[in-house]
Amino acid sequence: MPAPAPEPALGFLHGGSFSQLATLADPAVRLWRPREIYLPDATEADFAGLTTLIVSDRLHLGLLPRVTAWVNGVAERGGTVVVLGENGDCSWVPGLGALTPAEANFWWWRLPDGDNGVRRAAEDHEAWAHLTPRAVRRHYHGLLTPPPGATVLAYTDHETAGDPATEVLLYEDRVSTPGRLLVTTMDPVYHHGSRFMPGATQLLLGLLRWTGVKS
């Protein structure tokens, strides 16, 4: 009799900041029984067998390069890697053409028209069964240039270039690796753990519903 298939596993790479620990302690996140991978002590074995890996936002940029090969290994084995924002230029992410800095407007809802320029794309995509409009209608920390063949899910039309192809805030990439990469410049872990901006909670939990696996 063949051996049973291994149970799916969700990994959560974090650096031990207050917002990351608060997020991991939230019962809504604990539901997914994440494998907590502490960046300073991470080893290659921590990434073995993962079906999905959440790369928390705002990791230590001096420590992150040590683990990026292991992070990418999850996608190379056919898994899903979710790369959240405020993690430097993300030049280690397969397929990513560029991450262009952009000014973060934390108070966009106070604009005269209450519109921060964020737009959903690919309206028939499966992502929108899990992500509410409010989940992606929030501030961002840079603009992404995804690889050809990736699916743009959210972009802004308020930046100087005015080109949605290079003003991307969230995309899904199924072409650069055997698995899947979800890349965004939004930072939901920080804001969820800080109890600041409810839309961040909707983004974080929506991503878990979409990509997570209960182990």
What can you see in these coordinates?
- The structure is a single chain.
- The protein is an alpha/beta fold and 215 residues long.
- The protein contains six helices and ten strands, in the order βααββαβββαββββαα.
- The protein has helices spanning 18-25, 27-30, 68-76, 133-136, 188-193, 198-211, and strands spanning 10-14, 35-38, 52-55, 80-83, 98-100, 118-120, 143-145, 151-156, 168-173, 180-184.
- The strands form two sheets. The protein has an eight-stranded mixed β-sheet with strand order 2-1-3-4-10-9-8-6, sandwiched between helices. A two-stranded antiparallel ribbon has the order 5-7.
- The model has no long low-confidence stretch (mean pLDDT 91).
How would you concisely characterize the structure shown here?
This protein has helices spanning 18-25, 27-30, 68-76, 133-136, 188-193, 198-211; strands spanning 10-14, 35-38, 52-55, 80-83, 98-100, 118-120, 143-145, 151-156, 168-173, 180-184. The protein is an alpha/beta fold and 215 residues long.
